[in-house]
Amino acid sequence: MITLMNVLLGLGVGLFLLVLMKTYSDIPDATNLLLSANIGTYVMTAPRLFEADVGILYRYGSSGIYLLTGRYETLITSMFLHANILHIGLNMYALYILGKVVELSVGKWKYLLMYFASGIVGNILSAFLDMRAVGVGASGAIMGLLGYMVAMEYRMTGKLSTSTIFIALFVIFGGFSANVDIWAHAGGFIVGLIWGLMRRFRPKPMYEVSYDLYY
Hints:
This protein has 215 residues and is mainly α. Helices cover 67% and strands 0% of the residues.
C-alpha cells in the first residue's frame, strides 16, 4: 500500500538526485531528469524498497485492454514504473550509459522525443501483440537509444561488428532475465534504428588541412 510518506519520500529522493547530479556530475540535463524521475517514482511505489507495489503496477502499467478502454495515459505512466530493485537498477545503468552519448549527439529535445517515441511505440506493439499482459519499465525507451547508436555505428563505419549485433540481440531478448517484454524492446529498438538511419549526418573529418597559395 502506498502512503503519503512514500509519496513524499519518492519526491524528495527524485529532487535530491536531480540537484546532486546536476551539481557534481557530467550527466546531461535530460538524462539527469529521466534518471531522477525514474528512481524517485520507484522509491514512491516500492514501500518495501526491494519490490514495487503490485497494485500500482497493474493499475498504471501498459496493456492492450487498457488502450481499448481509452486509458492512453498508461503508455507514459508504465515507462516510469519498475517491478523490483534489480529491474530499476539494470534499466537506470543502461540509461546512464546510453543516455549521455545520445543526448550529446542529438541535443536535449530531440533526445527526449526519441526516448518517449521509442517507449510509446514499444508499448503499443507489445499491447496489441499480447493484449492481456501488463507491462512496466523504461526498457522500451532505452532500447530506442541503443537502436540509434547501432544505426550511427553503421553509418560511420559502413558495417556492424559481430559484438554489436550480439549485444543488440541479447538485450532485445532480455539476456538472462525472466518475464521480459520482448515486443516492447523490439518496438523501441526499431524506432531508434530508423531515427539513426534517417538522421541527416555528415561525419566530421579527423583533421583539416588548409593551403595558402602565394603568387
